[in-house]
Design brief:
globular, binds 4'-phosphopantetheine, three-stranded parallel beta sheet, alpha/beta, Rossmann fold, single chain
Length: 170
């Protein structure tokens, strides 16, 4: 029987954006399955959304793509997680050149930790070059409109966070 090729797409996904969705769809053209994996670090977590909120949004957003997209969260080293789920491919998105240094350092560190695990970089679609979860949060917190940059469910949750959710606009 042919092997299933599974890739891990790790990140904070705080929250998932249309850029992430684009990357998942691109990855599915190359791999059979993708695991969208939220890295958690309880000792220094400054995320806007809890892990369960982030997982819920990811599940909702990728529901239409069926079983080929799984969602998960993990604590500890990414390379150990990769071992646990039996994948040796880490997918990361590259937007502008400014992403490169950070990504290069992580890829080299992960390779040093576990040489059999490869990091593959996918180029983000042109329309998503400037989207980041951090900027999306900042814009919404200041009352700006990010529709078109995030899925509808994420837009709704962001608005809830910055209004009734108790977080004030600064
Ligand atoms: O979306 P992000 O914040 O750029 O993702 C960074 C992430 C989650 C991929 C990275 O911080 C990570 O892999 N964290 C897990 C812990 C780990 O393995 N750290 C060493 C990375 S070299």
């Amino acid at each position: 029987m042919a092997r299933t090729h599974v890739a891990i797409y790790p990140g904070s996904f705080d929250p998932v954006t249309n850029g992430h969705i684009d990357l998942v769809k691109r990855t599915l053209q190359v791999f059979d399955e993708i695991i969208v994996a939220i890295a958690t670090n309880p000792s220094k977590d400054s995320s806007l959304f809890s892990v369960s909120e982030r997982l819920e949004m990811i599940q909702e957003v990728f529901r239409g793509l069926g079983k080929r997209v799984r969602s998960d969260s993990f604590e500890g080293l990414l390379v150990d997680y990769a071992d646990r789920v039996g994948s040796h491919v880490i997918i990361r998105g590259l937007r502008a050149i400014s992403d490169f240094e950070y990504e290069f350092q992580m890829a080299m560190m992960n390779r040093g930790l576990k040489p059999k695990i490869e990091t593959l970089f996918m180029m983000t679609g042109e329309s998503y070059f400037y989207i980041s979860s951090r900027l999306v949060k900042e814009v919404v917190s200041l009352g700006g409109d990010v529709s078109g940059l995030v899925p509808t469910i994420v837009l709704k949750k962001l608005k809830e966070k910055f209004t009734s959710g108790g977080l004030s606009r600064q």
